[in-house]
Design brief:
This protein is of the alpha/beta class. It contains 13 helices and 15 strands. Helix 6 (148-157) links the parallel strand 5 and strand 6. 48% of the residues are buried.
Length: 394
């Protein structure tokens, strides 16, 4: 059977970790594209040579792609040459983890802005990629790793939604299963969960347990029997934070890489596989989904209506600093979160259209760089490299 073509756009750390998992399995014809062709070539050669240590001869092709307005036609031509079945977007103008390199006190203060105000950094390249996709390979299944909870929902409004996202809510599921198993005195394999929640929720819980104003839905089964409510949600998520705390940052992206693999490997499976993912079919936030046979479908538990799940995630979205995603794809940001950005970075963006994302990203990048240089003394450490093609909130 002919291997499906997988194109990963963005040659950063998440791309590396996904390839480290997938290449030895050798189930795909691999393609990697990024702005830096030299770095991409070295990355692909590393993967080929490492696979050969295990006597696996993997095919990996390198391509140059610059996800900017001026390069859309060239990108479309590149995509037409590759003809990918699956496109995984890992590109971002500034990874979520960049601000974690600030001194802790400064990071904690800036982190109060949440992820929403950083949206232009993730939306701009995704928008450029999707325009090229629509032009040259509209049947390809696009999987987005760059803030998919919001980016996918915005791109849906302009007719360019990726099929699904990865990470975020999916990253919380293994620890949730493990916490329930610990409380029940059984093994995690005996626990099945279906969890609805936005990035804010999945980011908060592993660090501090259940947030004061929690917007989520958790349904779970133990040994095949529904047991929802047997344990209080607060004690389940307290156990997640206490007993299943884990490494974050670059190391933590291994969990995101695994969530991406669970989606990518099953997109063309002969049967549907139940996983979790953000942004399916342009919906805001994260959901249980079914992937397989070239499609992605919602997999909500019985009794949880689609509109209720969406409302929960829209409430979480507001906690993340995105007040409203309008019908035309424009965004109104939360005043409280944007006030943090204005106070610390001198950056103010009450509203944004999809078309303005690249310009706002450029402004935000400049102002963050100046801020970081000042904090880290005379610009010795350039924490916000311009740009970084790598992303995933963990």
């Amino acid at each position: 059977m002919q291997r499906k073509k997988l194109l990963i756009v963005g040659g950063g750390n998440l791309c590396l970790q996904i390839l480290q998992i997938l290449v030895p399995r050798n189930q795909f014809e691999f393609h990697v594209a990024s702005r830096d062709i030299e770095q991409t070539t070295r990355l692909c050669n590393l993967m080929r040579l490492a696979a050969l240590q295990q006597e696996v001869q993997a095919r990996i092709e390198c391509w140059q792609m610059d996800l900017t307005e001026s390069a859309i036609e060239r990108n479309a031509e590149t995509l037409a040459c590759i003809k990918p079945d699956i496109i995984l977007n890992c590109a971002s103008l500034q990874s979520w983890r960049v601000i974690t390199q600030l001194p802790k006190v400064t990071f904690d203060a800036l982190d109060q802005a949440q992820l929403g105000p950083w949206l232009p950094m993730h939306l701009a390249p995704a928008y450029a990629l999707m325009r090229a996709v629509k032009q040259s390979c509209p049947k390809a299944l696009v999987v987005n790793a760059a803030f998919p909870d919001a980016v996918n929902a915005i791109l849906y409004k302009v007719g360019m939604a990726p099929a699904v996202g990865v990470g975020n809510i999916a990253n919380l599921v293994p620890a949730t299963r493990s916490a329930i198993a610990r409380l029940a005195g059984c093994e995690p394999a005996q626990v099945r969960v279906k969890l609805v929640g936005q990035h804010f929720f999945s980011h908060f819980v592993p660090r501090r347990g259940l947030p004061p104003d929690a917007n989520f839905n958790l349904t779970y089964w133990i040994d095949g029997s529904e047991s929802t409510g047997y344990f209080k949600s607060r004690e389940i998520f307290a156990s997640v934070a206490e007993h299943f705390r884990r490494l974050g940052g670059v190391d933590g992206q291994y969990l995101t890489a695994m969530s991406a693999v669970s989606v990518i490997e099953n997109l063309f499976a002969d049967t549907e596989v139940h996983v979790h993912a953000p942004g399916p079919d342009g919906l805001p936030g994260g959901y249980p989904v079914k992937v397989g046979m070239g499609r992605v479908l919602l997999g909500l538990p019985y009794g949880v209506r689609r509109e209720v799940a969406i409302e929960l995630n829209e409430a979480g979205q507001r906690q993340d600093g995105i007040q409203t995603i309008h019908a035309d794809g424009s965004v109104t940001f939360g005043r409280e979160q944007m006030h943090v950005m204005e106070k610390m970075l001198g950056f103010l963006m009450p509203e944004m259209t999809v078309h303005d994302a690249a310009a706002f990203a450029c402004e935000l990048g400049r102002k963050y760089q100046a801020f970081a240089d000042h904090i880290l003394h005379k610009g010795v450490s350039h924490v916000a490299q311009q740009p970084v093609l790598d992303h995933q909130p963990g």
